[in-house]
Write a structure and sequence with these properties.
It contains ten helices and six strands, in the order αβααββααβααββααα. The protein is an alpha+beta fold.
Length: about 450
């Protein structure tokens, strides 16, 4: 993110501008939307959720098979030998058979319920896929803004190092001409050494954050685009936490998943209760048998054609109390699903409230830090002027510089926190979409 730095000598400013231009030219910058699209095609967690959804859809079609007719074709070839002792006759018999069987369930309530459960499981997989997509959106955005924050921190530290170096050079010149004490030089040298250590830490942090972003999007040396300043941060509308909580109860994927799991558990209880009910199937078969060498009673070649159609009834009478115990089991699992749903509702409501108050706090911090930035700049200017006229000492200027740069860094991070808070609030309420990501992407520099 571009930062407003204290005035520097023209040569130093030109060198910094040239270095920034070369850095931007050597690395390909991309916006948040592009990073998201690359991560969506690369992220293994999202791809696993997509595969799980496809598998659930296929399982639902498998469950449909219990409601449709089944047809089978069978054939056989056998050869046998028959011996009679009176009269003494030995006969070889070859049998060739072909049978076509068909069955259509007429009354199988368990199969109907199994199909309904499969449909609910598809909706569960869809909720899991929605959650994975929203989670990917937040993870990409977090990595993106973490990299930007690390980049801003390094820029601030480097600018502070430049300013401290100039203050150190000024203190040395003043000491040489006798207008300041050695204390000023040593204080400036100590501050310069401290900033140098901070620069090393900031460079390493940027490297780590850059690697995390690269790994998430599946590319190397990804350079995120900074915010375009001045930036107007999005407001949280509606500004009522209860509205977001109510919205999450209808839309949040985890609540949807828990509610669907309760539906599946209730259907499982209904299916267990069908263990006492009869099943009725319509059956039909067509068969053909050929005896080319004759039969055991005749030496003539024979063909036999058979056909049948009927209804098969199966009524369970006693299964060793298996059905009753299965019903008790499913009722207990149904109570568990109800408790899981209530737990999901409470957790999501807590997450929504925490996200809402977090973004309200972040917005307040941004406003306070913007005011603090202006005040810190004025304080630095006043201390520099006082140092020049001899009413301020070198440490006063160094402290004012440190305060200004720290405020700039905190302000940049607070702005990113507002943007991330907006996404996390929508994720917690289950309403996060690509349009929300596009709205934040529009705030980046073109």
């Amino acid at each position: 993110m571009p930062l407003l730095l204290p005035s520097l000598p023209s040569s130093t400013a030109c060198l910094l501008a040239l270095g920034a231009a070369l850095a931007c030219h050597s690395a390909h910058a991309q916006n948040l939307q592009q990073s998201y699209e690359m991560a969506r095609a690369y992220d293994s967690a999202y791809q696993a959720a997509q595969a799980q959804f496809d598998a659930a859809a296929s399982r639902a079609e498998q469950a449909r098979a219990g409601l449709l007719p089944s047809v089978g074709l069978g054939g056989g070839l056998s050869r046998g030998q028959t011996e009679n002792t009176n009269p003494a006759v030995t006969r070889n018999v070859t049998t060739q058979s072909l049978t076509l069987n068909a069955s259509q369930p007429l009354y199988r309530p368990a199969n109907r319920i199994t199909f309904e459960q499969a449909q609910r499981n598809v909706e569960v997989a869809q909720a899991q896929l929605d959650f994975a997509l929203q989670d990917l959106t937040v993870r990409v955005s977090q990595a993106y803004f973490d990299a930007l924050a690390a980049q801003d921190t390094l820029s601030v530290v480097q600018a502070q190092k430049t300013a401290v170096a100039e203050q150190l050079a000024s203190a040395k010149r003043n000491f040489e001409v006798g207008t300041s004490t050695i204390t000023d030089s040593r204080e400036a040298q100590a501050r310069y050494d401290l900033v140098t250590a901070q620069e090393i830490a900031a460079e390493n942090d940027l490297r780590v954050k850059q690697l995390a972003l690269d790994q998430l999007v599946g590319q190397t040396n990804v350079k995120p685009r900074p915010l375009a300043l001045p930036v107007v941060l999005p407001s949280t509308q509606p500004s009522d936490v209860n509205h977001w909580v109510d919205l999450s109860d209808r839309s949040q994927p985890q609540i949807r998943q828990a509610r669907l799991a309760l539906d599946v558990a209730r259907l499982e209880t209904a299916k267990a209760q069908t263990g006492h009910l009869p099943t009725v199937d319509l059956t039909a078969s067509v068969g053909k048998a050929r005896y080319p060498d004759g039969t055991t009673t005749s030496a003539l070649s024979t063909r036999v054609n058979t056909g049948s159609v009927g209804v098969t009834l199966n009524l369970p009478l006693f299964a060793g109390f298996a059905t009753q115990n299965r019903i008790r089991e499913t009722l207990s699992l149904e109570q568990k699903s109800e408790a899981d749903l209530e737990t999901a509702r409470r957790n999501v409501a807590q997450a929504v409230r925490a996200s809402y108050y977090g973004i309200v706090s972040a917005n307040g911090q941004v406003k306070a830090l913007e005011a603090a930035e202006a005040s810190s700049q004025s304080a630095l200017d006043a201390n520099r002027l006082g140092y020049q006229v001899g009413v301020r000492i070198n440490i006063d200027v160094l402290n004012a510089q440190s305060q200004l740069f720290q405020t700039k860094r905190d302000l940049a991070i607070a702005r990113y926190n507002v943007l991330m808070g907006s996404l996390k609030l929508r994720q917690a309420s289950g309403t996060l979409t690509e349009q929300d990501l596009a709205a934040i992407n529009a705030l980046l520099s073109p």
